[in-house]
Amino acid sequence: MFHLLTPHLRTESVLELTVNRLRELGINGILLDLDCTLKRYRETEVRPEVAHWLDALKAGGIGCCIVSNGRSNRIKHFADKLGLPFVANALKPLPLGVHWAMVKMGFRPEHTAMVGDQVFADVLAGRWISALALLLLTALWFLERRLSQPRLS
């Protein structure tokens, strides 16, 4: 049971997932959460280095699709800017939206990675569809930092 909550790999940034690294892992399709994965939570734009990273993946033959629990019009805004297909209202961790994204993209689970920042949404969804589950440590780093700061009395 706990293996469903354990990511296959952890990384601090999507930028570490190069075309070569993904190929080494047998990955040719990547499902990407949006908030806290491709962009910081309240930011209205994706940083240029992330956009360049996505361009490099696409140029290297790695298929990319945004899979988010966010509302369609908000996710579409980012997907259109990045030139990516998307599935919004995905209901992660339920596998329905993630499975639909794989079907839409023609991905096979054994060659697909689900990348996100939440264990109970992204990792669990990736595990349920038998994809490689990659956890971004951004949220964990933030929590650890907040807990280590002294509190005012």
Structure description:
- The chain is of the alpha/beta class and 153 residues long.
- It has a domain at 26-132: HAD superfamily/HAD-like (Rossmann fold).
- It is built from 6 helices and 6 strands.
- It has helices at 19-24, 48-59, 72-82, 95-105, 119-128, 138-148; strands spanning 9-11, 29-32, 63-67, 86-87, 112-116, 132-136.
- Strands 1-6-5-2-3-4 form a 6-stranded parallel sheet, with helices on both faces.
- The longest helix is centred in the middle third of the chain and has 12 residues, at 48-59.
- The chain is globular and about 35 Å long.
Query: What pattern of helices and strands is seen along the backbone?
Result: EHEHEHEHEHEH
Strand proportion, as a percent range, falls in: 15-25%
CATH 2nd-level architecture of the domain at 26-132: 3-Layer(aba) Sandwich
Strand order in the largest sheet: 1-6-5-2-3-4
Write down how many β-strands occur, each being a DSSP E stretch of 2 or more residues.
Answer: 6
CATH class of the domain at 26-132: Alpha Beta
Query: Given the helix and strand composition, which structural class is it?
Result: alpha/beta
Q: Oligomeric form of this entry?
A: single chain
Main β-sheet description: 6 strands, parallel
**N-to-C CA distance:** 41 Å
Measured as a percent range, the helix fraction is: 25-40%
What name does the CATH topology of the domain at 26-132 carry? Answer: Rossmann fold
Overall morphology:
globular
CATH superfamily of the domain at 26-132: HAD superfamily/HAD-like
List low-confidence stretches: none
| Average pLDDT over all residues | 89
Radius of gyration, in angstroms, nearest whole number: 15 Å
How many helices? The count is 6
